[in-house]
User: Which sequence fits this backbone?
């Protein structure tokens, strides 16, 4: 089982002279499994009250491939790395060894992509939990959060969609079985010897109950906004290497058309459409105005 709880116990014995056999077998199996996942990120999703890998492990997303505004990536990475080095500090002070991050901002700005790339960078896996899921109850949530597989980031996406000011939303005719206080209890109650890193994302931070944003639940908030001129430039040069002049023209065109809100996902769409044709991407800038 992925959460380490024994399901069934089988006892195997060997002769004394072969006593290292099982250890060798297990070491070999572990090495094969680790090799198979090398350079990959395992995505776990909840299955009842346990975590199961969702599909095959995915190739790590390179952290360089996600372009956030200047300094944001390093700010988060430094914070996470400092947290990961501080186990003893927390332990000595009797503080639960956990840290919560909230990435908020408009759709398509790279929140999820960044968290995936960060997991790859740290050589961690990801546990994704959808709080709006029909059959998730407070008990299951609590169990899941206390049994996160080793070296995994917990990702709670679109946190505002599950709760809205302490009353559950019931859009599309169903409502989550998790209560807001159930989530708070689960976040507070994570009692793990291992570190627990939770990432939450939302497009609507204003809808979040302040109780969720309290330190200990969310310790680090960061806005991941629409593309800044710096990001537009970096995105352009990522798709069209060395095309600095055309990049200038692209930025100029955006200014002329007074386009103030473009998501990095929209930019990606435009550049993928014009894979080898930066000049055409410049011609098509106006379409960004209407592709929100
Ligand atoms: N900053 C970025 N750098 C590189 N690629 C990006 C960036 N932002 C978005 N993308 C691309 O756009 C797509 C959507 O991005 P992603 O899902 O990470 O956005 P999001 O902010 O999590 O959106 P939502 O709030 O709707 O969940 C992905 O294919 C991703 O590669």
Assistant:
């Amino acid at each position: 089982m992925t959460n380490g709880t024994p399901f069934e116990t089988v006892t195997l014995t060997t002769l004394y002279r072969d006593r290292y056999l099982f250890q060798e077998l297990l070491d070999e199996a572990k090495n094969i499994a680790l090799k198979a996942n090398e350079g990959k990120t395992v995505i776990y999703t909840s299955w009842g009250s346990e975590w199961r890998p969702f599909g095959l492990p995915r190739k790590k997303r390179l952290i360089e491939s996600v372009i956030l505004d200047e300094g944001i990536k390093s700010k988060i990475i430094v914070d996470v790395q400092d947290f990961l080095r501080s186990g003893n500090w927390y332990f000595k002070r009797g503080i639960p060894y956990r840290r919560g991050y909230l990435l908020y901002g408009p759709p398509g700005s790279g929140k999820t992509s960044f968290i995936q790339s960060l997991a790859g960078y740290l050589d961690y896996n990801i546990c994704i939990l959808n709080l709006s899921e029909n059959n998730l109850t407070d008990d299951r949530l609590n169990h899941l959060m206390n049994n996160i597989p080793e070296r995994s980031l917990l990702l709670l996406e679109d946190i505002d969609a599950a709760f809205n000011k302490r009353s559950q939303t019931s859009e599309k005719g169903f409502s989550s079985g998790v209560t807001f206080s159930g989530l708070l209890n689960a976040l507070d109650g994570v009692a793990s010897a291992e570190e627990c890193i939770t990432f939450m994302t939302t497009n609507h931070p204003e809808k979040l109950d302040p109780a969720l944003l309290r330190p200990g639940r969310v310790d680090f908030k960061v806005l991941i906004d629409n593309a800044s001129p710096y990001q537009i430039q970096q995105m352009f040069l990522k798709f069209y290497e060395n095309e600095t002049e055309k990049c200038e023209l692209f930025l100029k065109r955006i200014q002329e058309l007074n386009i103030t809100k473009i998501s990095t996902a929209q930019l990606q769409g435009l550049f993928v459409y014009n894979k080898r044709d930066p000049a055409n991407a410049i011609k098509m800038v106006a379409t960004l105005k209407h592709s929100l």
